[in-house]
Amino acid sequence: MTNRPPVLAPLLPELPAWMDRGLCGQFDPELFHPEKGESPNPAKRICMQCEVRVTCGRYALADPGLDGVWGALSQRDRQRLRRQRRQKREAS
User: In this structure, are residues 47 and 24 in contact, taking their beta carbons and an 8 Å threshold?
Assistant: First the structure.
């Protein structure tokens, strides 16, 4: 049995193996999907202790359709990083 976050099951039928090692699987998935106006910081603190944080964050950056906190990055954080990367490419 894996500890993959149940919230992901309908989204990703075949989840990457690294997700089995994510600390998020030990917590309520709603924590990683804060409602508008709620802070993502509790989820981010958990992510900062997770061994797959970097891989998770890269995974989420590659898929703009994902919401919630991934790899200690909120959806807003990821949007900002994508915009910065795009601007850097355009300036080159």
Answer: yes
DSSP states along 23-71 = GGGGS-GGGGSPPTTS-SHHHHHHHHT-TTHHHHHHHHHH-TT--S-BT
pLDDT value at 81 more than 80: yes
φ and ψ of 70, to 5 deg = -135, 125
Token pair for residue 46?
């958990």
For 88, list phi and psi in degrees, rounded to 5. -65, -40
Paired tokens of 26: 């030990």
Measured between alpha carbons, how far apart are the two ends of the chain, in Å? 47
% of the chain beyond a pLDDT of 90: 79
pTM over 0.85: no
